[in-house]
TrEMBL record:
Example of a GO cellular component annotation carried by this entry: elongin complex
Family matches, as Gene3D superfamilies: 6.10.250.3180
Upper lineage: Eukaryota, Metazoa, Spiralia, Gnathifera, Rotifera
Protein's recorded name: Uncharacterized protein
GO aspect biological process, one term: transcription elongation by RNA polymerase II
Ranges annotated as biased composition (Basic and acidic residues): 76-85
Superkingdom field: Eukaryota
InterPro entries associated with the record: Elongin-A_domain, RNA_pol_II_trans_fac_SIII_A
Pfam family, one: Elongin_A
Renumbered residue ranges of the record's region Disordered: 76-101
Length: 145
């Protein structure tokens, strides 16, 4: 009567059933053999060990292995976060007055050169060249042929 229920049970459910009813331990031994073959293919029973004990042993070994891997991954991640995400101080430069950069008044005074005001009128401002196609379009637009 209980056999159909036991055949569809998961290993955790079978473990709970055996904990509550130790009389079913012999009846579910083939199921534990099936679970051992399914989950732990290379597992070998030790002397006088049931498949239930083999499954529990392998399951705890697997859990311990996964726990070690998880701890190792957490530790490595913490190390990389510590090394990669440090706040590093920057060398902050004093703000520069742009007017004093362009002005060479001080250097002219030191070198006894004349002021640059007399040379201002000699430089010509170069107009940007208008492309030929744009010139033609502007002539047509303005009505000049």
């Amino acid at each position: 009567m209980v056999k159909p229920i036991l055949t569809v049970a998961t290993p955790e459910q079978l473990h709970a059933i055996i904990d509550n009813n130790p009389d079913y331990a012999d009846d579910v031994e083939p199921l534990w053999q099936h679970f051992c073959a399914l989950h732990f293919k290379d597992a070998k029973r030790e002397e006088y060990e049931t498949y239930y004990e083999l499954y529990l042993r392998k399951h705890t070994e697997n859990e311990a292995r996964l726990q070690r891997i998880t701890e190792l991954a957490k530790r490595k991640k913490a190390e990389t976060i510590d090394t990669a995400r440090h706040t590093k101080p920057l060398n902050i430069r004093e703000p520069i007055n742009r007017h004093s950069i362009n002005s060479n008044k001080v250097t002219r005074q030191v070198l006894n050169l004349p002021s640059s005001k007399s040379h201002r009128g000699q430089t010509k401002v170069k107009k940007p060249a208008i492309p030929p196609l744009l010139k033609k379009a502007l002539k047509v637009y303005n009505g000049k042929n």
